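Minutes, project check-in
Item: structure for the 168-residue chain
Input as provided by the requester:
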Amino acid sequence: MEPLSENQIRSSFVNCTKGEAARLKLPLDFAELPWGELDFLGWVDPGAPLRAHLVLPRADGPLGIALRVPAVGRTSAVKSSLCQLCLTGHASSGVTLFAAPLAGARGRAGNTVGLYVCADLACSLYLRGKRQPRLRSGRYEESLTLDERIGRMSENLDGFVARVTESA
């Protein structure tokens, strides 16, 4: 992913108001982000931990999606979970349900779509082995190449974005 400026990020959001985009806090490590190892920029807002953000590179410029973390924690007896984007296995606390308001009038009416994703939104780093999940049984081995896994994650992310932006 090519580096983005603060203005590019703030102006990219399609499912929140301009005021909400202006108030969001950038990642604490924004100046040191490993842009070359990111397929998308994802972070939990350091000033509002129940909000998160995704910014994806697109041919016509970056596209931002505002996310919410449900205030009530998920209660489950499941010991491990799988991210629906990168398919990284985590201890159950390593995957979080993120809900995205739909873009346009449907989102203003309160409609959302959700996805279980790595809680730290660092899918790109997990795929590249730069970050390791805390899973007792270790990382799942796959026969796919890194490029194939990145392609699969991009398709999964594109499907989610299409659900957020359809008929906006």
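Outcome recorded: Residues 6-165 form one domain.
No further action items on this chain.
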